[in-house]
What does this fold into?
Amino acid sequence: MFKNKQVPVGRVIKLSLLSVLATVTFHGVNAEAFDGAEEIKKEIVKVVNQDGDLSITNIVLDIKNDDTKKESVDDEIAIQNQEEKIQMLAAMSQEQEQVKAEIEEQKRLEAERLAEEQRKEQERIEAQKRAEQAERERLAKQREAQRKQASQNQWIRVNATAYSSDCTGCSGFTRTGKDVRTGNHRVISVDPSVIPLGSLVEIEGMGTYYALDTGRDIKGNRIDILKSDKDTALNFGMKSLKIRIIKRG
It folds into this structure.
């Protein structure tokens, strides 16, 4: 531990051992503060008693170097631990950012899916509305053509069925209020947009009838002829007939 160096004996003797033990410092660090201070004291006494060579500077330097090495190792361990913590935190942060990015991507894809579904549903609704509007316009044109044809006293072809006053859901009174529960009445049920209520019509091969009633299923070129009883109405079935307006109602 100690490095021997030749110095005058008189110079060594002048140094007080107690003073050396109490005041030997290097850069403000007391020698007694180091680990193994007692061993150092014994070594100094041994060297002085033996009139050996002593270098106070070398003693202090050796003590300081040992402690510096220890502190350096501790600092390196602390720095390494700190670096490991930083690396661990950085890895955790990177993983959190990745999870966050995945969640945001899932939200974006879900929003796009919902937007696409809404777009398709809106297109379906609009297409349905257009189809319904087109059907209404077609029916309106058809009725207008039928109205014009009928108003000109021309024959038009219709699908004809029959009903009786005692049918299911029937009240025995026509739409215009005529009581048809008894007697033989020449009444037909019509679509008022084609044949106005109150009109006198002629059915080819069957004579004249009054358009005094309406029906839920009587739309467009369709008429329902009133019969005296259910059996007669059922036996009539459905026929294709020609009809024309003689006098508009």
Summary: Strands lie at 25-26, 29-30, 156-164, 187-189, 200-203, 207-213, 222-227, 239-247. The two ends are 137 Å apart (CA to CA).
